[in-house]
Amino acid sequence: MGCKKAITALSYITNSRVASVARGDILGLSRVGALKDVATHASRIGKASFSTLGEGSSDEFIDANIQLALAVIRKLREIVEIDTCIVFPDQPEKRRASQLFRTALDTMNGITLGSLDDVPSGPVRSVFKSLRRVLDFDFSADDEGNWRSNEPPSLFLFINCSTQDLSVIEKYMEQYAASIPVLLFNLELDTLRSDLGLWGFPNKDLHYRFLSQFLPVFYVRTREYSKTIPVAPFLVNYSGALFRQYPGPWQVMLKQVDGSYACIAECATRFTLGETKEELLTVLGLKEEEGSSLEFLRRGYKNATWWEEELELEQSSNWRS
């Protein structure tokens, strides 16, 4: 089986009916029942359609995400006729996307556009919104009424959002998507989680009550390692990936000489990054003796991130399933 490096990901969350696409998480499901069929179709789309994105400029990355999102929406609509609302971080991003991708949007049915600015905010945030609109010349466009519908969508898709936007997405869901599936598209959730709890960012509780609900449906995260050994060649470089395609199990993949990936371990629950590395070392015959000082010196005191360790604080284990 082959896996290509991807920086796209979808995740679906069952209780809150949310999905997301980002580096690592490619597809995830948190809602069972009818959404399982949608998730299965989406995971196949992810495997077939998500190409590798380069680490180019921010605008190139944003535009590529939008193109991928439109491709996913188009293919999903071919399988299951659903109406989708694409939600952008703010009004300027929404306006920019509607201008750049106007032709594509005009050729698609059942699609509407929104932004996180639609969420009612307090006086301080409202002042900043007004100031930003003035500085960004965010005046109403002639086509402001385009891609709107009086009927509620069947799916909300959030795109190009940051760590600070996650708490606003939660409020948006409470306001507009209480019973509607939501897709977080290519938000690099593992990267966003690492910012939680830092000064100026939402606290870690956001993961425990919100992000933990995400059930990955399509996930690819590549890793590269090196290990010193006492004999020639003295330094061994190896790489692999943590992979999951719903409804299949989580898999640890070893990158081979020809560039393909081979499954070396699988489990119904998510491997931590530390466990992924241990599986790679074991199959390569490079793992130290269990409980030895060499093993402790290599692994260190911490072998997992805070969100992988603190199970008792999570309101849901969906993101590990």
UniProtKB/TrEMBL annotation:
InterPro entries: DUF1995, LPA3. It comes from the Eukaryota. Transmembrane segments: none annotated. Residues 62-277 form the DUF1995 domain. It holds the Pfam family DUF1995. This is DUF1995 domain-containing protein.
